[in-house]
Specification:
The chain is mainly α. The protein has helices at residues 4-18, 22-39, 42-58, 62-78, 82-98, 102-118, 122-139, 142-158, 162-179, 182-199, 202-219, 222-239, 242-258, 262-279, 282-298, 302-319, 322-335, 342-346. The model has no long low-confidence stretch (mean pLDDT 97).
């Protein structure tokens, strides 16, 4: 970077980002960006845009994140900076993933991975594998997601990146829960939480608290689950992460649903739905629809429940969400007095539901 002032601001922004102080980090990166434009420093401008994209993505502002990444690709190609293009593709892919667009997300991430492998960029490889595993989980390819998370974990372990290891453990915890391996899920999240608290990583600590809460929920330990969710929610509100906070609210709503506290469940689902609409997350919205449908079913409103479940099924088919499609088909079958477990079996997950309320993982 040509200017010492730009370097100082950029370093400050990175420090704030590492501390999960995202709002302050974003303001600092934007100040640095303005100075790079004035100084005509293309490389520094690209670095600032990448960081702005990353912070926007991590707080659920995917529109601004993608705008920043697209700008990086355009500017980096002007100066033949292939590494910056790959970095932008990785962030852009994660942003598409965050919107439920796992297909285009994977396409962008694979472009980045090809570059990192050609250039033996071990950190880039590890990060992109972790990102791809998350996209595969959203797709509903759980066996492949688990395998890719394990590959990413091995890569981060070889780099001695404790934070990277922690995020892989969280990914493994989430994918294991969907696979029906609840004991494994709990152990992954427990290990991640201990690691993140030792590192002082606020985002990672919140992430692992939410996962731990879901593990307790799958065990039927609802009181412990709500305590863990409350810890996660407090941290997510503090750092301004709307995406993760939304899923925590959904998890809290589902826990109250399992306790047959339908009024509280409805309120949490409503709040989560509002945030999912802001972040434009179709998968999150499907989960809220399923929750509303089950509440209607538990109240004896069969027609209302069928409407919610049918809408969820149509949306899951539209976006290619395999697991969520199974959930919707299962609930519709149950509503019609039938059982349909084969859908889960075909996806290689060990999920079985017998009676309402259903503890959707």
């Amino acid at each position: 970077m040509k200017s010492s002032e730009i370097s100082r601001l950029f370093a400050r922004g990175e420090y704030l980002r590492q501390k999960s102080r995202y709002s302050e980090a974003l303001q600092t990166f934007r100040r640095a960006l303005n100075k790079t434009v004035a100084a005509g420093d293309a490389h520094a401008m690209i670095a600032c845009l990448l960081s702005i994209g990353d912070v926007c993505r991590m707080t659920g502002d995917f529109t601004r994140a993608e705008r920043a990444y697209v700008k990086v690709v355009a500017e980096a190609r002007k100066i033949a900076d292939a590494e910056a293009v790959a970095d932008a593709h990785a962030g852009w892919g994660l942003s598409r993933r965050g919107r439920g667009d796992w297909k285009n997300g994977l396409t962008l991430l694979r472009k980045a991975l090809r570059y990192y492998r050609r250039n033996d960029d071990r950190e880039g490889i590890a990060f992109t594998l972790w990102s791809m595993a998350g996209a595969l989980r959203i797709k509903g390819d759980i066996p492949e997601a688990l395998e890719t998370y394990r590959e990413a974990l091995a890569s981060f372990q070889s780099l001695q990146s404790r934070a990277g290891v922690g995020y892989c453990l969280c990914g493994l915890g989430g994918a294991s829960r969907i696979a029906g391996e609840f004991k494994d899920s709990h152990e992954y999240y427990r290990s991640a939480n201990a690691l993140f608290r030792k590192l002082g990583d606020t985002f990672g600590t919140a992430y692992s608290y939410c996962g731990t809460g879901n593990a307790y929920r799958m065990y039927g330990e609802y009181g412990k689950a709500l305590v863990a969710f409350s810890k996660a929610a407090t941290l997510y509100r503090k750092i301004g992460d709307r995406v993760s906070y939304s899923y925590t609210l959904w998890s809290m709503g589902t826990t109250h649903k399992m306790l047959l506290d339908l009024t509280s469940a409805q309120a949490y689902f409503r709040e989560a739905q509002g945030l999912f609409r802001i972040t434009k997350d179709p998968r999150g919205l499907i989960y809220c629809q399923l929750g509303f449908g089950e509440i209607a079913m538990l109240k004896g409103n069969t027609k209302g429940a069928e409407k919610y479940f049918s809408r969820s099924l149509a949306e899951a088919k539209k976006y290619g969400f395999r697991i969520e499609r199974c959930h919707a088909e299962m609930l519709l079958s149950y509503l019609g007095g039938k059982k349909k477990p084969l859908c889960y079996n075909r996806l290689g997950v060990k999920l079985g539901f017998t009676k309402a309320p259903f503890n959707i993982p």
